[in-house]
Design a protein that fits this description.
CATH topology of the largest domain: Nucleoside Triphosphate Pyrophosphohydrolase
CATH class of the largest domain: Alpha Beta
Keywords: Hydrolase
Family: Belongs to the Nudix hydrolase family.
Radius of gyration: 21 Å
Number of helices: 5
GO molecular function: 8-oxo-dGDP phosphatase activity; 8-oxo-GDP phosphatase activity
Largest sheet: 4 strands, mixed
Structural class: alpha+beta
Number of strands: 10
Domain Nudix hydrolase: 1-99
Distance between the termini: 29 Å
Strand content: 25-35%
Shape: elongated
CATH architecture of the largest domain: Alpha-Beta Complex
Pfam family, one: NUDIX
Length: 255
């Protein structure tokens, strides 16, 4: 008899957006179309929750006469949600994010890309900005230059730790001590395709770390200790501008 946002677990072989539409339909009776990912909540690779903003696209609200194992009913509510008996208060920050996004979107619409991925991993955009405004990005040099990728949950302790642990491991192993980057990434986007090649059902999170303030850590980035990494100086002004803009426009990760 308590209220909550439509929510639920993904089923094996189910896509992220597919699960969103199914859960909303089962619990509210409404069809919906996702607008954007609002936040990623995580307690390590074994527990990840996607919070979406969506718009109604059909169907009718579930009534008490239609109560089933999924929910007892659904209704629209325009007042203070704290006036209702809530199943959990953890929905309130999600509502705040949704209201803020509707007033002034802090990031572009971000929805999963239909691309296969075998493990759960993070692809990192690690920038370095100089006092003069020069921009470098860390790249892997094995094969075609690429953004570094780290796998999550490769050991039992990491399954219980947050998603930031693999990022910290990469920074610790490949860069000098006390790196200047904030080890709390924001999400630029994610890719997932259920039942990919060989039954792959992983997720790749494309994330960015906060860049250091210009002038705080010198004119050039620290030399990587791993020969498989190098800094790429971004000289194209258009690309440089787009990267700098996205550094300030990411989906938050709530750990």
């Amino acid at each position: 008899g308590r209220w909550y946002l439509p929510a639920g677990r993904m089923e094996p072989g189910e896509g992220v957006v597919e699960a969103l539409r199914r859960e909303v339909k089962e619990e509210s009776g409404l069809e919906c179309e996702p607008v954007t990912l609002l936040a990623l909540e995580e307690r390590g690779p074994a527990w990840i929750r996607f919070a979406f903003l969506a718009r109604p696209a059909g169907g009718t609200l579930k009534t008490l006469e239609e109560a089933d194992a999924e929910s007892l009913q659904a209704r629209w509510w325009s007042g203070d949600p704290r006036a209702l008996p809530l199943r959990s208060l953890d929905m309130l920050p999600v509502l705040d994010l949704a209201a803020r996004y509707r007033r002034s979107p802090p990031h572009p619409p971000t929805l999963p890309r239909e691309l296969p991925c075998a493990p759960l991993c993070l692809r990192l955009l690690l920038p370095f900005t100089s006092p003069a405004g020069d921009l470098w990005v860390l790249l892997g040099t094995a094969g075609t230059p690429h953004l570094p990728v780290v796998a999550c949950g490769t050991s039992p302790p990491e399954l219980r730790a947050g998603l930031c642990q693999p990022v910290l491991r990469l920074l610790r192993d490949c860069l000098p001590r006390d790196p200047p980057w904030d080890p709390h990434p924001g999400v630029l986007g994610l890719q997932h395709r259920a039942g990919g090649p060989g039954g792959a059902d992983g997720v790749c999170f494309n994330v960015v770390l906060s860049a250091p303030a210009p002038g705080t850590h010198g004119d050039v980035p620290p030399e990587p200790s791993d020969p498989a990494l190098r800094w790429w100086h971004v000289e194209d002004e258009g690309l440089r501008g787009r990267i700098l803009q996205r550094l300030r426009a990411t989906v938050p990760i709530r750990s």
